[in-house]
Amino acid sequence: MKPVRKAVFPVAGLGTRFLPATKAFAKEMLPIVDRPLIQYAVDEAREAGIEQMIFVTGRGKSALDDYFDIAYELETTMRARGKSLEPLAATRLPPGALASVRQQEPLGLGHAVWCARDFVGDEPFAVILPDDLMVGTPGCLRQMVDAYERVGGNIICVQEVPREKTASYGIVTPGALDGALTEVRGLVEKPRPEEAPSTLAVVGRYILQPEIMRVLDNPTTGAGGEIQLTDAMAAMIGTQPFHGLTVDAVRYDCGDKAGFITANIALALARDDIGPSVRAFLADLD
Ligand code: UTP
User: Fold this and answer.
1) 110-153 pLDDT, tens per residue?
2) Is residue 159 part of a domain?
3) Protein residue whose Cα sits closest to atom 10 of ligand 1
4) Ligand 1: which of 9, 18, 131, 231 to mutate, most ligand atoms within 8 Å of CB?
5) Residues of the chain with pLDDT under 50
6) What is the pTM of this model?
7) Are residues 186 and 173 in contact, defined by beta-carbon separation less than 8 angstroms?
8) How many domains does the chain have?
9) Would you say residue 128 lies in a domain?
10) Residue 115: which CATH number?
11) What domain range is 191 assigned to?
């Protein structure tokens, strides 16, 4: 079984739910407390043993690449002023660990993943959607890689959602259960609640076999007029093992305003430095 060494970060979406903030600025640069979403995603990948980060970017997203570069001017000035460079440590990746490819048009998540096909090559790979912030110990992708090392094939991260929310997710037709793993018998993107085969939803972490790129070579247009990753994954079921993993992690949907604010409050409360003052503020609201 080949190890999972590469992760694709599709970050070329328009981020319309966060306009105007995202007009000239990538959604993935929005901070949760003091770190942008992309930093949490890259840290999670590194914890899971990922060596190669592949960003699929679009127009106006150059800050994402710059963020992981050395900032000579900033660092020289900080050093001269005797300031610690420690807050920048996590932005340093090993040389060659970051590759970037453009998705010229936001045609959908499936298309964004396909844009990374030459970087992925013939290896299994992870896909991480940074706006799904997953907080867990070990990290969400680490848990998925551990499961992958047991059962191989394709593994998607799944969570139960309220039935009225199925139209916002890819939904699984579940098969046999094996602890936290559910066999995936079918997948449908954004079904109406009355048509959803279950309430088990796909959330933004995937371990996929490279053959999915061959499915995406001939894409179909799916829900919302977009090339959906869910449809390509559905076409793989039956040809390769396919499991959903219910991870032990809290998910914050930071592509959504309420989810973003909730994540900021939750992670601020967990911090030793600012937690007490945020808690005191919240207590005063009652
Ligand atoms: P979303 O469904 O959240 O879309 O994409 P969006 O454009 O980012 O945001 P809204 O809905 O307009 O506010 C899910 C993930 O897929 C990526 C996004 O960057 C996000 O990580 N994506 C989506 C692409 O990279 N390209 C696409 O064409 C579509």
Assistant:
1) 999 999 999 999 999 999 999 999 999 999 999 999 999 999 99
2) yes
3) 15
4) 131
5) none
6) 0.95
7) yes
8) 1
9) yes
10) 3.90.550.10
11) 6-255
